[in-house]
Amino acid sequence: MPSPCFRQLDSFLSPRFKHCICFFHVRSFKTQLSISTVHYRKSASDNDSELLCCLSQRKLREARLVLDKMPQRGGSNVVCWTSMLSRYARDGFVDEARMLFEIMPVRNIVTWNAMLSAYVQFGRLIDARQLFEEMPERNVVSWTSMLCGFARAGMLDDAKRLFDVMPNRNVVSWNSMISGLIQNCDLEEARRLFDRMPVRNQVSWNAMIAGYAENLRMEEARRLFDVMPDANVVTWTSLIAGYCRIGDIEEAYDLFVKMPVRNVVSWTAMIGGLAWNGFFEKALLVFLEMKGIGNVKPNVETFISLFYACAGLGFPYLGKQLHAHLILNGLDHDDYDGRLLKSLIHMYSRFGIMDTASCLFTSNSDNHIIESLNSMINGYICFGQLENARHLFNTVPFRDMISWTSMISGYFHAGDVTEACWLFGRMPVRDAISWTAMISGHVQNELFDEAMYLFSEMRVVGIGPLDSTFSTLLGAAGAMAYLDLGKQFHSLLLKTRLKFDIILDNSLISMYAKCGEIYDACRIFDKMTSRDVISWNSMIIGLSHHGLAKKALELFESMRGVGMKPNAVTFLGILSACSHTGMIDQGWEFFNSMMRDHSIPPADEHYISIIDLLGRAGKIAEAEEFVCGLPFEPGPTIWGALLGVCSLGNVNADVGKRAALRILELEPLNAPAHVLLCNIYAATNQQREEGMLRKAMGAKGVRKVPGCSWIQLKGRVHVFLSGDRSHPQTDEILSLLAGDSRRS
Fold first, then answer.
1. Is 498 within 8 Å of 530 (Cβ atoms)?
2. Number of structural domains in the chain
3. Which of 7, 56, 399, 728 has a beta carbon 3.0–4.6 Å from 403's, enabling a disulfide?
4. Which of 245, 261, 277 marks a domain boundary?
């Protein structure tokens, strides 16, 4: 009786697909009763079914009687008998084919080869070898079948011995041996054999070129392609797929454009190559071009790539349309390896459409894939459904390190450090990625000392830190201005890394700049062999924060000179440099050029930089005019920036009051706005308004956040809060600051 899952699938599968499912379901259990009732072919006669049933039950006498009754197949019609044997073998009835082979009164070499091929096709090499040795005569087809069987099974020594003693070889024999060598990663021997071939055909060339391409040896593949006499669509597609694998999308697309003929495989290779390399939009555009032609229909592989492209771009409506298109074309059940299901679950999880993702995941419980589980967990976490992620994590019978690490990171993002640590403690196996997630999670939650302790524990248990581990720790050292600790990490890197990648160099630049060592940051920047936009931005912002505005602007020009495109962060650094040096005109020019020349829309941070630029120059009225003229309703951060520049002096109190009152309308419990407004009232002798505001602050429970500073001394961090007297040396510190400390 079929399982419940089988009955559930039965409700929506097409008749043809259900027939195939039933067919293989029957074969998997090999029950005599089931086989007798299988209609393995719609055109099969009752005699065919009866014969198959007799053969499966080894009733050879009855089988022979049935066979004699079949028109055109009785007696000694060896052609019909052999055709029936081949059909049984092709449909998976290998044992029944052998029974038929045994009762055949007449056999020829084609019959023997058909039986031999059946054994080879289904990996039954022991039976194949025995049959091969029993053959009364052999031809090149017999030898080649046996050769293919050995090569496919990875038995290269047997394949080579057989190839060496073959009495005759044709181009198929040579191709089979070459393909077997390539399949088993012996490209050098395959090439030697290829060069020795007396005659080559397209299959020979394509096998060798595809072998090089699949092993990322594109220079050798291209050299063969350039001298191939008659490259076909398979050749072009192999080369395109190879270039996509090594990330050379430009070369792949250039070849694709030049292709004389394209089929669905070549279109799919290009679409897939673009999607896997992150060119999601281009992948969709190529698909639209393919659809415009009209004579090429997408296959399952095409849709898999398109689902990943839609997920990468965040296009839920297009993703749903493609899913519907897949169903309408009857391809939604063509998923023999589960990759289609995996791509759909990944896409819907990235969109946050978790109900659909969950339905797909649970309705195919017999085909659970660990990657799909991880997509589901990450989808729940990214869209704030941590409890759903935990429920799924607890209920599935299979999990890997990615599942555990995702859950740990999810709890850290939610600020639940205790639960993250609890999960980490129960993790069955920990790798460098899970340790790094723990360190990063503690840094993210500003638990820097605990992060450093975890790093020490990681090394004690023998797990080597990743580059991302060091990058996280360098970021923490920079955030806390722990220069000594940052230097220690740098020294450890010098001892354990022969060369630094660009991420590590960027982390070192940022750390040294934040810790006040701008010239060390410059030294690292100058030694970099390659730089990305983060490298340039880190250096520009570092120079800006150290008051080296001229050097920051010069570096910006150098950045543009080498063809590196600035982004929003670049302009934030440049505007900060202009603000610190009072370069109003240059600041305005850079701000206006963001959209005009670079199509970069300003964010709140850029507007705040302009407010700071005007405020530092004493142009408070112009700053207020700028805020009021923004093309959107300013929020508390922008009004707060305006209020902040008003507090730099006692002038423009009216602007400050308007800004503070606007903030309090948007955020009635905003403590800084209350404090600055109190200061403005005090500075303008408005004691009554000040008193009323302070009473209101008390009634609302609004308190100023105390100022904080810290210093690292002899490996220990000393933190000081405004008004806090809990430090054991508070009296001595205050006396020293007051200038009346006495030395014994």
1. no
2. 4
3. 399
4. 261
Asked if residue 648 belongs to a domain, the reply is: yes
CA distance 517 to 477: 13
What is the DSSP annotation of 124-184?
A: -HHHHHHHHHH-S---HHHHHHHHHHHHHTT-HHHHHHHHHH-S---HHHHHHHHHHHHHT
Residue 466 domain-assigned (yes or no): no
Longest CA span, the chain: 125
Clarify whether residues 669 and 609 are in a common domain.
yes
Q: Which residues pair with 718 in a beta bridge?
A: 711
- On whether both 662 and 715 belong to a single domain, the answer is no
**444-491, pLDDT tens digit by residue?**
998 888 998 999 999 999 999 999 999 999 999 998 888 888 999 999
At 430-440, the pLDDT tens digits run: 999 999 999 99
713, β-bridge pairs: 716
Do 614 and 695 lie in one domain? The reply is yes
**Helix crossing, 218-227 with 202-214: angle to 10°?**
160
- Structure tokens belonging to residue 127: 């039976």
Helix, strand and coil content of the chain, in percent to the nearest 5, comes to 70, 0, 30
Say if residues 63 and 55 touch (Cβ distance below 8 Å).
Answer: yes
Q: Which CATH number belongs to the domain containing residue 692 in this structure?
A: 1.25.40.10
Beta bridge partners of residue 720, listed in sequence order: 709
The predicted model scores a pTM of 0.71
Say if residue 619 is in the same domain as residue 632.
yes
Strands 716-721 and 708-713: antiparallel
Strand-pair partners of 708 = 721
The phi, psi pair for 718, rounded to 5°, reads -105, 120
Q: What is the 3-state secondary structure (H, E, C) of 464-489?
A: CCCHHHHHHHHHHHHHCCCHHHHHHH
Tokens 């050749």 belong to 235
Is residue 732, in this structure, part of any structural domain at all?
yes
**Which tokens belong to 246?**
């090594």
* Residue the block writes with tokens 């010239």: 519
Q: How far apart are CA 340 and CA 334, in angstroms?
A: 8
Q: Are 699 and 646 members of one domain?
A: yes
Domain that holds residue 26: 1-30
Distances (CA, A) of 238 to 184, 224, 228, 255: 18, 12, 13, 11
Whether residue 400 lies inside any domain: the answer is no
Q: What type of residue sits at position 657?
A: K
Nearest of 56, 83, 59 to residue 70 by alpha carbon? 83
pLDDT of 485-510, one tens digit each?
A: 899 999 999 988 878 889 999 999 99
Question: How big is the chain, counted in residues?
Answer: 744
The answer to whether 423 touches 407, Cβ cutoff 8 Å, is yes
Q: Where are the alpha helices (DSSP H) in 259-385?
A: 264-276, 280-293, 300-313, 316-328, 339-351, 354-363, 370-382
Tell me: do 662 and 726 sit in the same domain: no
Say if residue 730 is in the same domain as residue 643: no
